[in-house]
Amino acid sequence: MRYLPLTPQERADMLGVIGAASVDDLFVDVPEAARLAGPVAGLPSHASEMAVERHMSALAARNLSAGTAPFFIGAGAYRHHVPATVDHLIQRGEFLTAYTPYQPEIAQGTLQVLFEFQTQVARLFGTDVANASMYDGSTACWEAILMAGRVTRRSRAVLSGGLHPHYAEVVRTLARFTGDAITSLDAQLTATPDDAAVIAAIDAETACVVVQYPDVLGRIPDLAQISAAAQAAGALLICVVTEPVALGMIEAPGHLGADIVVGEGQSLGVGLQFGGPYLGLLGCREKFVRQMPGRLCGQTVDADGKRGFVLTLSTREQHIRREKATSNICTNSGLCALAFSIHLTLLGGEGLAQLAAVNHARAQAMVDRLTAIPGVTLLNDAYFNEATLLLPADAREVVRKLAERGVLGGVSLGRLFPGHPELASGLLVTATETVTDEDIEAFARELAQVLEGVAA
């Protein structure tokens, strides 16, 4: 049977109910310049399955991927070794779904995993509670800002200049539809974070300040100082963690005064995957739990006194009291959350600390070797596994030439912050446990030659 769910008359009836003359009326918010006027040029209307597979394989072969070259890219997505056990377990039939079950109590295994996941995230972040995951780090950041607004009954958020610009852009985009006031501080090429500027921006109307830890340039802000200033003004401190492995070495944000901690869980168990799907993390103080978006799994006992798991909180848009929902997050990244939990369980507390120590040591070796190249200097001398280098040339051009030489040599600040020429010489470089001495030497050799060529 062909998949034609609606007849022309049914479509017309639906449009009539909502008062639209045609389907095109549903897209009036999309600028005309962004709409396709016809078929995509050069894209065939159809092809056989074998032809499509052959074509897509040829396109994929043109990628210089993380596993095929010396790899020093981070900036919010990190290459870590994922044990084979993780992939084996998440592919079991009991788990292989991206969703939390809609009749959750019959899926005790899934609920138990999510309960344990919440416990791990709460301990990692140093918060009282954590939810059963969110979509990704950037949208979790926005949900935390909305949550802070509900708690404080204010609508102004201050974004540190050290917040990942993609996260900041998601916040600004979504704030257009809520009317929240967003104050975004500019990124600065300074050795220390913009803690003083963040504190100076807090006023009596501020609902929250958003600070990344470590920040997008690899620097480590003083959360305790910012927390004290926010608390004095009645605002909340939201801490963003894009690299959870760092918390195996540096203090948990919740222990330093963060009220809400959000982040990206991709580093543990998930893999790069060319950009997704990823996994959002969110934890907070217990007193804010009823303002938390998403779902919360809890432990209880059944009528026979046996341990069981239930959805304790699930204030979601599809429930009866949808006008009372804390957000429109209507599911969670369940499979990615499972992968995260399995990987962290395999590591344990001591293993995470050891992994963090290896990451830091690899980054130190990378920085020491690269700063030995004439003209290359280090911006921040306090970092975890990524740091910012200052080059005697535009870093965007350098990155492109390195890729041509088979080295994925970091992320240029010019790419992260377009329109800010004062940042053009900055190169964000990252080293994890997957980086070898040979990789570092290849990076240094090719970087030196590229810089010589640019100078010439």
Keywords:
12 helices; 456 residues; 7-stranded mixed β-sheet
Helix content: 25-40%
Shape: globular
- Indicate the structural class: alpha/beta
The sequence of SSEs as H and E is HHHHEHEHEHEHEEEEEHEEHEHEH
Q: Strand arrangement, largest sheet?
A: 1-7-6-5-4-2-3
Average predicted confidence as pLDDT: 92
Beta-strand content bin: 5-15%
Q: Can you count the beta strands?
A: 13
Q: What is the gyration radius calculated from CA atoms?
A: 24 Å
Low-confidence spans = none
**How many helix segments?**
12
For the record, give the distance between the C-alpha atoms at the N and C termini, rounded to a whole number: 67 Å
Largest sheet descriptor:
7 strands, mixed
In short:
It is built from 12 helices and 13 strands. By secondary structure, the chain is of the alpha/beta class.
SSE layout and pairing:
Elements: H1 8-18, H2 49-60, H3 84-90, H4 108-125, E1 129-130, H5 137-152, E2 156-159, H6 165-175, E3 181-184, H7 195-201, E4 206-212, H8 223-232, E5 236-241, E6 260-264, E7 280-284, E8 296-301, E9 307-313, H9 334-370, E10 377-378, E11 386-390, H10 395-404, E12 411-412, H11 413-416, E13 426-430, H12 437-455
Parallel strand pairs: 2-3, 2-4, 4-5, 5-6
Antiparallel strand pairs: 1-7, 6-7, 8-9, 10-11, 11-13, 12-13
